[in-house]
TrEMBL record:
<dbReference type="GO" id="GO:0003924">
    <property type="term" value="F:GTPase activity"/>
</dbReference>
<dbReference type="GO" id="GO:0005737">
    <property type="term" value="C:cytoplasm"/>
</dbReference>
<dbReference type="InterPro" id="IPR027417">
    <property type="entry name" value="P-loop_NTPase"/>
</dbReference>
<dbReference type="InterPro" id="IPR030378">
    <property type="entry name" value="G_CP_dom"/>
</dbReference>
<dbReference type="InterPro" id="IPR023179">
    <property type="entry name" value="GTP-bd_ortho_bundle_sf"/>
</dbReference>
<feature type="binding site">
    <location>
        <begin position="130"/>
        <end position="135"/>
    </location>
    <ligand>
        <name>GTP</name>
    </ligand>
</feature>
<keyword id="KW-0342">GTP-binding</keyword>
<feature type="binding site">
    <location>
        <begin position="58"/>
        <end position="61"/>
    </location>
    <ligand>
        <name>GTP</name>
    </ligand>
</feature>
<dbReference type="GO" id="GO:0005525">
    <property type="term" value="F:GTP binding"/>
</dbReference>
<comment type="function">
    <text>Required for a late step of 50S ribosomal subunit assembly. Has GTPase activity.</text>
</comment>
<feature type="domain" description="CP-type G">
    <location>
        <begin position="11"/>
        <end position="178"/>
    </location>
</feature>
<comment type="similarity">
    <text>Belongs to the TRAFAC class YlqF/YawG GTPase family. MTG1 subfamily.</text>
</comment>
<keyword id="KW-0547">Nucleotide-binding</keyword>
<protein>
    <recommendedName>
        <fullName>Ribosome biogenesis GTPase A</fullName>
    </recommendedName>
</protein>
<dbReference type="InterPro" id="IPR016478">
    <property type="entry name" value="GTPase_MTG1"/>
</dbReference>
<keyword id="KW-0963">Cytoplasm</keyword>
<dbReference type="Pfam" id="PF01926">
    <property type="entry name" value="MMR_HSR1"/>
</dbReference>
Length: 282
């Protein structure tokens, strides 16, 4: 599959991040806990340089808990603070706020010496599309200040949002990078919905997903769909799932498109299981 998506507004977002970096005290980098590596834009490291950063591992409720802990140890080894968050249940949000104070202490002390007191902490939130930036903002502020959608590319421009009297957030549109040199990165982004489904061949994508899930945990597929996975190709597994889910059309053929959409939807919602697709090299 040739997966590539770089809408024009993403180039503008990159320039906007550079321009606004001097206005903020800390950057929240939101990533997907299921694909911590693939959901990190490699260009962000270059742009942020030494700016205080907090990696927020969102959708942690969908990821394997043990592997998420390993990822936190990995980021800690690199000298980066991280926190596990589930924006839907508000898990980890208080820790986000508390860590913001810790990571900006030096800046706040500098401002105090200049006689600037009680100025809100200013944070910029960056991340790939559909990773949950707007949901995080709305959960932190407890109001619907940012547009939310389960489709990537909803936020099209920068917007300042008051989270509380001592914390302000600059939201930015999701940003991918122009070319996915690693095909696995492109697949991971497609699996988790960071790339618009309209741009993808869903059946081929799901066959790739089943291959990956069969390697990571056959049990999750067998238990969810009550099938036997061993010694079967990903396409044969998809056909079995289609039979179990009643995706049968005239002549007894399996509607593989319908079955594919079921598998993809259930993976993204965590119904198949808490699955992490990437492991830290640590």
């Amino acid at each position: 599959m040739n997966i590539n998506w770089y809408p024009g507004h993403m180039k503008k977002t990159k320039e906007s991040i550079k321009k606004n970096l001097s206005l903020v005290d800390i950057v929240y980098e939101l990533i997907d806990a299921r694909i911590p590596c693939s959901s990190q834009n490699p260009e962000i490291d270059i742009i942020l340089k030494n700016k205080p950063r907090l990696i927020i591992m969102n959708k942690s409720d969908l990821a394997d808990d043990d592997i998420s802990e390993r990822w936190q140890k990995y980021f800690n080894f690199k000298g980066i603070t991280s926190v596990l968050v589930d924006c839907i249940s508000n898990r980890g949000l208080n820790e986000v706020v508390n860590l913001s104070y810790v990571l900006t202490e030096e800046k706040r002390l500098q401002l105090a010496k200049k006689g600037i007191k009680n100025r809100p902490i200013r944070a910029m939130i960056v991340g790939i599309p559909n990773v949950g930036k707007s949901t995080l903002i709305n959960s932190l502020s407890r109001k619907k200040g940012a547009k939310v959608s389960n489709k990537p590319g909803v936020t099209k421009k920068d917007q300042w949002i008051r989270i509380r009297k001592d914390l302000e957030l600059l939201d930015t549109p999701g940003i991918l990078w122009p070319k996915f040199e690693d095909k696995e990165v492109g697949l991971n982004l497609a699996f988790t919905g960071a790339i618009k489904d309209e741009l993808l061949d869903i059946e081929t994508l799901v066959i790739k997903l089943i291959e990956r899930l069969s390697f990571i945990s056959k049990a999750c597929l067998e238990e969810r769909y009550n099938i036997v996975v061993s010694n079967k190709s990903a396409y044969e597994i998809l056909l079995e799932i289609g039979k179990k889910r009643g995706c049968v059309i005239r002549g007894g053929e399996i509607d593989t498109e319908k079955a594919s959409n079921i598998v993809l939807d259930e993976f993204r919602k965590g119904i198949i299981g808490k699955i992490t697709l990437e492991f830290p090299n640590f």
